[in-house]
Design brief:
Layout lengths: L13 H28 L10 H34 L31 H11 L37 H19 L1 H4 L10 H4 L10 H15 L10 H18 L9 E5 L12 E2 L3 H25 L6 H26 L12 E4 L14 H21 L5 H18 L12
Parallel strand pairs: 1-2, 1-3
């Protein structure tokens, strides 16, 4: 490990910290999507040309990717708790993929890749411990200039340089300490704790509600330890687990140079992303794939709105808070995952022969929050979920995942609709 000189992350007022946490939320969200994309891309068993030993390895990697992606969702929840703890509204929105250089610090680049050599090298680069020299995968070449340093006297925040995810979070931890020393903990941690993710709701014992400096620092440390490991011990951290996959992948490639663990997927969109002008996106033209992709995107959009409502509640009861959590988890597991996996078996279209659809986690607009009042917010959540239910029911696609997704979405809609006042319900079924 070669020490690197990394610029200090500056925090001298709440807005500086708020900016950093907002950027951390987007980063965790997008890293999670990268890992899910790679998981969805994997072949399934010997029927797809894998040997029995290769198929067993791929199944292990699927479990590794899924568990790491779930932990990235945990990190996103911890960041939301940190934002809520200091009185800032959590954010779920993010830009579309790819973000190769310039949106984040120039060396922090994100793209959707099927699992293989390029993806593993990229994941190892992203998860590397602070201070470690490691190159990103080919194609991830920084072209944007470094961000201008933030002067500690500046009233307004802007993006700052950080080389690693750990570097960013250590800057956030230092900021929490500085502001607590300057203003006092009570003045910094002004959040009520009402809209925070807790272990009993998400069944993650690692979740930490942020109410003071100690709990804020503990939340930051949990993210760092899970990602890069504690004090250089990365065997069970994301970096170490990806390193194990990389070493096994290299051995299987040595034994069989033609070994490919993933289907021939590319990230494919229903239309050119509104916030990405170049490069041009791969557009799905196959009619069956387009229909399945629209359902997957609806499920993704509704899931994000459920989570956003959870993190910014008003007068929801404990039962209603639980419904929001359970609905989001059910949509992810019962609708989004099977649909996204099915997409990887469907063709993109004639412009991309021999390529199948990788779910691109498409964002259609800059995502904001709903109105603060609970009743209209729940009416909108139920309405959008009903669109998903109806589209599944009307689908002409015969893929088994469509029917299963429709059943899961119906259960979510039923739970939501029961809490929408009769006056706000549609007059037609």
């Amino acid at each position: 490990m070669t020490p690197m000189t990394e610029p200090r992350v500056v925090v001298t007022n709440r807005e500086h910290l708020w900016w950093l946490l907002g950027e951390a939320a987007q980063l965790e969200h997008m890293i999670m999507c990268q890992y899910l994309f790679a998981e969805f891309s994997l072949k399934d068993g010997t029927d797809e040309g894998l040997t029995s030993s290769q198929a067993e390895a791929v199944e292990r990697w699927r479990k590794t990717l899924r568990s790491i992606a779930i932990e990235e969702m945990l990190h996103l929840a911890l960041v939301a708790n940190l934002m809520s703890g200091i009185g800032a509204a959590p954010t779920i929105g993010r830009p579309n993929f790819p973000q190769r250089s310039g949106y984040f610090p120039s060396a922090v680049q994100l793209d959707l890749l099927p699992l293989g050599e390029e993806a593993l090298l990229h994941f190892l680069f992203l998860e590397r411990p602070e201070g470690m020299e490691r190159s990103d995968a080919a194609g991830f070449v920084p072209v944007a200039p470094p961000r201008e340093a933030l002067d500690e006297h500046e009233a307004f925040p802007h993006g700052q340089e950080f080389a690693t995810v750990g570097h960013l979070y250590r800057g956030i931890a230092d900021g929490l300490r500085f502001l607590s020393g300057k203003f006092g903990e009570n003045a910094v941690f002004v959040g009520t704790g009402r809209g925070q993710a807790r272990p009993e709701l998400f069944h993650w014992p690692q979740l930490i509600a942020v109410t003071d400096l100690a709990s804020g620092l503990a939340a930051v440390e949990e993210i760092i330890v899970q990602g890069e490991g504690a004090s250089g011990d990365w065997n069970h951290a994301h970096y170490g687990r990806f390193l194990s996959v990389w070493e096994e992948f290299q051995e299987l490639r040595r034994q069989d140079p033609s070994f490919e663990p993933a289907r021939p997927v590319i990230p494919a969109f229903l239309r050119q992303p509104f916030d990405i002008a170049d490069p041009a996106a791969a557009i799905i033209t196959d009619s069956v794939a387009r229909e399945a992709a629209e359902l997957a995107n609806l499920a993704y959009e509704v899931t994000l709105h459920m989570l956003l409502r959870f993190f910014s509640p008003t007068d929801e009861t404990d039962e209603q808070i639980g419904i929001l959590v359970n609905s989001a988890l059910r949509l992810m597991a019962g609708v989004l995952r099977p649909l996204a996996t099915t997409l990887t078996t469907l063709p993109v279209g004639v412009a991309h022969p021999d390529r199948t659809v990788g779910f691109a986690f498409e964002m259609y607009y800059p995502m904001g929050n709903m109105v603060p009042s609970r009743e209209p917010a729940w009416a909108l959540l139920a309405e959008r979920t009903k669109v998903l239910v109806d589209r599944c029911a009307e689908s002409s696609v015969t893929e088994p995942a469509i029917a299963a997704a429709g059943t899961a979405a119906q259960g979510v809609w039923t739970a939501l609709a029961a809490h929408v006042p009769p006056a706000l319900r549609p007059t037609s079924p």
